[in-house]
Write a structure and sequence with these properties.
The protein is mainly alpha-helical and about 150 residues long. The protein has eight helices and two strands, in the order αααααββααα. A two-stranded antiparallel ribbon has the order 1-2. A hairpin with a 4-residue loop joins strand 1 and strand 2. The protein is elongated and about 75 Å long.
Length: about 150
């Protein structure tokens, strides 16, 4: 018999002010809401009762005595998965990179995809190329200058 089925619905006069949010698979959610409906608890009440039980439970012997079980339950990944992009320095650290010399009608040229992008959204666009704005205009300076010249002469 589950823990929720053993409990009777009792009121607790303490104010509950802190919310808890979690993501479940569709099967987990359906099974849990079915259990809540059968026991007469709302999903929030059931979660609160399970948390209270876990916090009040002092018998951690399952976790202390069986390290192998812990490793099976919590798969340990020795290699953290991070995307690290090498950034290129564009001058001394006290100067800030600006794109003002390429800005025309509040747009900037993207020399990689050869299109004009809103200056306000250019940083977001640069991420699609896995580069920073400064990297794009440093590496592809000639093409950006050419696009600016073409637009200013037309």
């Amino acid at each position: 018999m589950s823990y929720l089925r053993q409990l009777s619905s009792s009121s607790n006069d303490k104010a509950k002010t802190e919310p808890v949010t979690t993501r479940l698979t569709k099967g987990e959610f359906e099974a849990f809401t079915t259990l809540c409906n059968e026991t007469g608890f709302s999903v929030a009440e059931a979660l609160r009762l399970l948390i209270q039980k876990e916090l009040s439970d002092t018998s951690d012997t399952v976790y202390k005595n069986d390290d192998k079980m812990l490793q099976n339950v919590y798969e340990i990944d020795d290699k953290p998965q991070q995307n690290v992009y090498k950034r290129i320095r564009t001058g001394n650290s006290s100067s800030r990179f600006t794109t003002n010399k390429w800005k025309m009608n509040n747009e900037l040229p993207c020399p990689i995809c050869e299109s004009w992008i809103s200056a306000a959204n250019f940083s977001r666009h640069a991420k699609q190329h896995e580069m920073t704005t400064a990297e794009i205009f440093t590496i592809h300076k000639e093409k950006a200058d050419e696009m600016l010249h073409e637009r200013s002469t037309s």
